[in-house]
Design brief:
Helix content: 25-40%
CATH architecture of the largest domain: 3-Layer(aba) Sandwich
Radius of gyration: 18 Å
Number of strands: 8
Number of helices: 7
Strand order of the largest sheet: 2-1-3
Mean pLDDT: 76
Strand content: 15-25%
Distance between the termini: 35 Å
Number of domains: 2
Length: 207
């Protein structure tokens, strides 16, 4: 969608995980409601990135090879379908974006409160721009994401402790207090337990 006035390009994707329906429905609804004369620049919406996973109802993977697309970036053009899809997004779509939003939601076995990840390792300019964008959102938790430490933080991840609770069973620690609050330790704050923080500055966490 191209606005009547010049401006930057915003790319918004959803459906990286085929059963996270909230983001998918959000983009379809948004596309119906937005008017080109109301925007500056260009808006590119991709409601269903993982089309195969969406139509087959697969939880968090691309059915063709059983790989989680969200763990396959930057991709590999010589790899299996998921790796090739990640490479296509990296080379064909993302370079068009001045700003990228990727929408996720609770899968069918999860409930998630609103939260946002923003980059903490993409250089000073990008990190600061991402942080400002995260500050403008009305969410309870904002997390600076660093993939270099995110893997070893997987079971102590603040966002998951705070935001993800299973309908059928506890996941990622459920309602327990955070034993190793990496976010609080790295930010030099006191250890935090599983409650909401309405003050935006207290909602910034670091993985």
């Amino acid at each position: 969608m191209t606005g009547n006035n010049p401006g930057k390009t915003l790319v918004v994707t959803a459906g990286v995980h085929g059963r996270e329906y909230v983001g998918i429905q959000t983009l379809f609804t948004f596309a119906e409601d937005i008017l080109c004369e109301e925007i500056n620049g260009r808006l590119i919406l991709i409601p269903v990135v993982n089309e195969e996973g969406f139509y087959q109802g697969s939880r968090q993977i691309v059915p063709a090879d059983g790989i989680n697309l969200n763990r396959a970036f930057p991709g590999d053009i010589h790899g299996t379908r998921t790796w090739r899809l990640a490479a296509a997004l990296e080379t064909c779509l993302y370079p068009k974006a001045d700003f990228l939003l990727d929408l996720h939601g609770g899968d069918d076995n999860e409930m998630a409160m609103p939260f946002v990840y923003f980059s903490a390792c993409a250089g000073t300019g990008v990190t600061e721009a991402s942080r400002r964008a995260a500050s403008s959102l009305s969410v309870s938790v904002r997390t600076a994401s660093d993939p270099q430490v995110q893997g070893k933080a997987s079971r102590n991840c603040i966002v998951l402790y705070h935001c993800v609770r299973s309908k059928g069973r506890r996941q990622f620690g459920g309602n327990r207090k955070i034993r190793k609050p990496l976010a609080a330790e790295r930010a030099g704050r006191d250890a935090m337990t599983n409650k909401d923080y309405p003050d935006p500055e207290k909602c910034f966490m670091y993985l």
